[in-house]
Amino acid sequence: MSSSSMARHGPSRAGEAWFCTTGLPSDVVFEVQDMSFHLHKFPLMSKSRKISRMLAEQDEQRPPGQPRRRRRGSSGGNAEEHAAPAAAAETEIEEAEEEDGDEEQLQVSMEDGKSYRITFPDFPGGPGTFEAAAKFCYGVRVELTPWNVAPLRCAAEYLEMTEEHSEDNLAARAEAYLSQAVLRHPGEATKALKSCEDLLPHAEELGIVARCVEAIAARSSATSRSWFGDLAVLGLHMYKRVMAAMAAREDVRTEALEGCLVSYAKATLPGLSRSMRWRRASAPVSSEVEQRDLLEAVVASLPADKGSGSVVTAKFLFALLRTAHILRASDAARAAIERKAATQLEQATVEDVLIPSYSGAAETLYDVDCVERVVRHFLAEEEVGEDEASSSAAITEEEAAARTTASRPSAVAMTQVGKLVDNYLAEVASDANLKPAKFCELALAMPDHARIYDDGVYRAVDIYLKAHPRLTTEERDRVCGVVDCRKLTVEACTHAAQNERLPLRAVLQVLFFEQLQLRRAITGTLLASTASPRARHPQPQPAAAAVRHAAGPSEAWRTTTVQESQTLRLDMDGMRTRVQGLERECSSMRRAIKKIDGRGGTASPSSASSPDAAAPAGWRSRYRCKFSTQVCDSQARDAVVSRASRMGMSP
C-alpha cells in the first residue's frame, strides 16, 4: 500500500474541509461540527449500516432522471461512471491542497445537488474520531490506544459499524482492545475513563464508564500503587465515582483510599504544597471556584476514622486547612478539616501549624484562632476517650493493666501536643498585634499534665514580654501567670531570677519555689538514705504498676521527685561546701555594713547637715535595701522565710 493520508483543503464557511483524494471525485459530504469531509459513499456504506441507510433514503428523495456527477479533469474529458474502489487496501488517501479551479468546480457540483450531504451534529468524539472511523472504512490501519479506544467504540456504535453489517468491523476491534489491553491495567483504564468525559451519554449507555470505574476499583487493593498519580487526570465527577466504587468494595484497604485521595489532592490543588514539588505538569490549572469544589470533594472523601497517619499525615491535613483558608472554602469544610487534623495533632510540627491569616479582618500574622480550635478538638477527643475508659463499673486487675497500656499513647500524645503548643506560642509571641488575652487563652488551653516542665511556655512568655514592652502591670502579671513556677527546671529558674522583664512578684515566686523544691529534694534524699534497699528498690507487680500509672499526674510527679532526689544526694557534699562559703561571705558583708554604719553614727552634728556626710547613712533608703538581723544559717528552719523577707515578701 502506498502512503495514505487525508487532505486538508482549507477554511470555508463551516470551518475546514477534508478531502479524500483517490483519483475519483467525492460524492458524499459529511459535516461534523465545524468540519466538512468530502468522501466516497461505497467504502463507508460497506462498513456503516447507518450511512448506508441514510444514503438510501436520500436516493429515494431525489427526482428521477437526475444526471450523474462527472469526474473532475479537463473541460473536454470523457464521462465515466462513478465506481467504488475494488479493494480497500488499494485506496490512497493523500494529504494535499486542492487547486483553486478544482475548488470552484467542486462548489458548483455541490450547488447543483449532485453530492450527498449528511450532517452529524452530535457525533461522539468530534471530527477527529470521525476521521479515524473514515480511515478504517477505507482500509487504512488505525492504531488503537487507551485514549482513542472509547471514542472509536462510541463512534462504531453511532455509525452501526457492527459485525452484523460487516465482519471484523470497528466495534468488534475496539471492544477486543478495551477488554484485553485497557481494563486489565488500572492506569490504562484511567486514561480511557478520562476520554469518556467528552463522550457522555454515549459512553455511559455502552457501559464503558462503569467498566473502567470497576476495573480501577478492583485493582486498587494491589500492592503496587504507582498508578495512583494517574487519577489526577480525571475530572471531579469521574473521580467521585472511582472513590465511591473503591469505598464500596470490602477488599480495598483504607490505606489505598487515602493514597488515591492524597495523590489526587496534591496533583489538582496548586496551593496544597508550598514547594509545589507534587504538582503534576500535565494537571490543568483550574479556576478558584473549581479548586474550591475539588477541595471540598477531597474533604468529603476523607476517612471518618483516625487512620494510621502514614498516608493522610498531619502535614497533609494542615496543608489542606491552609489551602481551605486561601480558597475561602465553606465553614463546614474548614470545620471538618480542623476536626480531622486534631486527630493527628501530636504528629504535627510548628511549620505545619503556622497558618497565615488570609482574612482582611484579622490583625495577627498567623491564624491563632484556627490553631486554638484544633487544640480544643484534640482535647475534646481525649476527654471522650477518658470518659469511655472510666465508664465501666468494676474491672479486674488484668483489664485495668490493659486499659492503662492502651491509654499510654494518649498520655504521650498529650505531652507532644503540649510541646507543640509551647513552640507555637514562642513563634507567634513576637507578633506585635497578638493580644495578651489571646496569648493566655491558648497557653492555658492545655491541662497541667500536658507539660512535664514549663520551660517551653516560660520561653514563650519571655519572648512575648520582649516584643510587647508597653504592657500594663496587670497584663504582665496575667501573661506571667500562665507559667507554673513549681515546674521550672534549674536552668529556667536561674534565667527567671535574673530576668529584668519579669514582674517582681513572678521573680519572688520563682525564688520561693526554687528554695522549696530544694528543701523537698534534700528531705527526700535523707529519707531515701535511711530506707532499706528493698524499700528503696521495690518490685511492683504488673497490676500494681498499672494502678500506679493510672493514679494521675500527681503520683508521677512524686515519683519523678524521688528519682531526682536520689541524683541530688551525690551532690550534697558540694552543696554544703557552697552554703558554708555563702555564710562566710554574708558574715563579711554584715561586718562591712556595721563599719559603714559606725562611721556614719559618729559624725559631728555640723557635718551631719551636709549631704556628703549624710550619704553613707542614707544609702539603704536610697537603694531600698532591707536586711534582717538574722544570720544566714543553712541549719535554720526558717531559711526560706528569711530569704522572702530580704526580697520584701511577707513570711
Automatic annotation (TrEMBL):
Q: Which parts of this chain are annotated as the region Disordered? A: 55-105, 389-408, 532-559, 596-619
Recorded hits in Pfam families, A to Z, give:
NPH3 (PF03000)
Q: Which InterPro entries match?
A: BTB/POZ_dom, NPH3/RPT2-like, NPH3_dom, SKP1/BTB/POZ_sf
A single GO BP term for this record reads:
protein ubiquitination
Mark out the compositionally biased spans (Acidic residues). 91-105
Sorted alphabetically, the keyword list is:
Ubl conjugation pathway
Identify the stretch annotated as signal peptide in this record. none
The record places domain NPH3 at: 225-517
- Composition bias of kind Low complexity appears in 542-554, 603-617
**Pathway membership of this protein?**
Protein modification; protein ubiquitination
Family membership, please give it: Belongs to the NPH3 family.
Matches recorded under PANTHER family: OS12G0117600 PROTEIN
Q: Spell out the protein name for this chain.
A: NPH3 domain-containing protein
Q: What is the protein's species of origin?
A: Aegilops tauschii subsp. strangulata (Goatgrass)
